[in-house]
Write a structure and sequence with these properties.
Elements (H helix, E strand, L loop, with lengths): L15 E5 L2 E4 L3 H12 L4 E5 L3 H6 L5 E3 H9 L4 H6 L1 E3 L2 E5 L2 E5 L1 H5 L3 E3 L2 H15 L3 E4 L2 E6 L7 E5 L6 E5 L2 E4 L17 E16 L8 E4 L6 E7 L2 E8 L10 H11 L13 E15 L2 E2 L2 E3 L5 E2 L7 H22 L3 H29 L6 H14 L3 H12 L6
Parallel strand pairs: 1-12, 2-3, 2-13, 3-9, 6-15, 13-20
Antiparallel strand pairs: 4-8, 5-8, 6-7, 10-11, 11-12, 14-17, 14-18, 15-16, 16-17, 18-21, 19-20
Length: 412
């Protein structure tokens, strides 16, 4: 039932409405949509709020690598069928350093794969399942989202309706904050009741999308004195590239010719096929930084994905962490609402943060590998190359790297 709301102030003459939901999910990325789907499957009343349009979230370029354990969990929940049909499994990656190619067959060591599946495709699948198949309530283009009364038993989320301009209030039992690094839910936790641990690597990556097929059958990591370079396949006709650059660099400093000259130099290796050059359809600079919010819960609010932690794209862990949070949180909310079991909610933050810190540590270690040779420090260069050589000469080192690179292959 919709009724006038006494809880929010509005401009004179402006309508206010209030609704009641069990769970409000803020943000329609992989985390929010997965939580929403889990709740719909458990017949839990919920609504998803998203500031972007459906077209925007289904086409926004983002991550593209999903770990095997996450694919299994999506399958188990009826959310992985199209992914299994269309994703490209990867079983090997390749490091290039010292002018040589070094193939790393991680699937042989672990029995698990990576799945290359661009985030826009996963989001499209999850939106379709939530809204079109399961009949979920999702509201696009909302504005001025705010959270209220999180410490009470009747928290609320308010927003401005894009069609009417009216202020709407959603009273609920729980709020899932899945609105990313620039969202509002994280800041709804009082500063004195949260800790934000931050790390700035002092390194930039020029992120590129090119309309070209991948030049090899796997992910490439170029460790070079001029800076790191990477190639990450996205589809048969589109490839993601990265180039290390100064933090805060202007993408316009990187012309077409400069980009391809640097990629060819940093990914060069004996016997390697030449890079296929083509049109660049995206250029942006990412400053390599990380943060973790502790705890990930406050009152009736629970943070998931980039709203609660950000890991730089160094190890392709961000989307996987978002899915891990969503599985934990969706299950915990469903258990609490349908069975009165609060154990999952009470343990959610600690369970999530264990994996978050594990992935942050691996990302930091891998960052040292990627960037050490370009540090202009002879000692750091030497230790970096020693680490790289060990990966290809020590079975124990190779097994440890493969396990971390693929994430935990066991239960989420």
């Amino acid at each position: 039932m919709i009724s006038p709301s006494p809880h929010l102030n509005s401009a004179p003459g402006q309508r206010r409405t209030e609704e009641r939901r069990t769970v409000v999910v803020v943000g329609a990325g992989p985390a929010g949509l997965t939580v929403g789907n889990i709740l719909r499957a458990a017949s839990v009343d919920c609504v998803v709020l998203e500031t972007g349009s459906r077209q925007f979230i289904e086409t926004r370029p983002r991550a593209g690598v999903i770990e095997e354990w996450a694919v299994r969990e999506l399958d188990r929940r009826g959310l992985g069928e199209r992914l299994r049909q269309r994703a490209e499994p990867h079983s090997v990656c390749e490091f290039r350093f010292g002018g040589e190619r070094h193939r790393f067959p991680y699937a042989e060591l672990t029995g698990s794969h990576h799945h290359v599946y661009p985030q826009p495709l996963l989001v499209t699948d999850l939106v379709r399942e939530y809204a079109d198949v399961r009949g979920g309530d999702i509201r696009f283009g909302v504005r001025d989202v705010a959270l209220h009364d999180l410490d009470s038993e009747r928290p609320a989320v308010s927003y401005r309706c894009p069609e009417t301009g009216e202020r709407r209030l959603l009273r609920c039992d729980f709020v899932a904050g899945c609105d990313g690094a620039r969202g509002v839910t994280r800041d709804a936790i009082p500063a004195g009741q949260r800790r934000i641990a931050r790390q700035d690597d002092g390194i930039g990556w020029l992120a590129l999308l090119a309309e070209v097929p991948p030049s090899t059958d796997c992910v490439l990591f170029g460790v070079h004195p001029r800076g790191f370079a990477g190639q990450m396949p996205r589809s048969p006709g589109v490839t993601r590239f990265y180039l290390q650059c100064p933090p805060g660099d202007d993408p316009e400093n990187w012309s077409h010719d400069r980009v391809w000259t640097e990629l060819r130099a940093r990914l060069a290796a004996a016997g390697a096929p030449p890079l296929t050059e083509g049109r660049l359809i995206e250029k942006r600079v990412l400053d390599m930084h990380h943060y973790v919010v502790e705890p990930l819960a406050h009152g009736r609010l629970f943070l998931a994905g980039d709203a609660g932690h950000l890991v730089a794209p160094i190890a392709a862990k961000g989307m996987n962490l978002a899915l891990h949070d969503a599985f934990l949180l969706g299950d915990a909310l469903a258990a609490c609402v349908t069975r009165g079991d609060r154990d999952g909610l009470e343990g959610y933050s600690a369970a999530s943060l264990r994996r978050v810190w594990d992935y942050q540590e691996f990302s930091q270690w891998l960052s040292d590998i990627y960037h050490g040779v370009a540090s202009d420090d002879p000692f750091r260069t030497g230790t970096t190359l020693a680490r790289l050589r060990r990966l290809f000469t020590s079975p124990a080192a190779a097994a440890a790297f493969a396990e971390q690179y693929l994430g935990d292959a066991g239960a989420y």
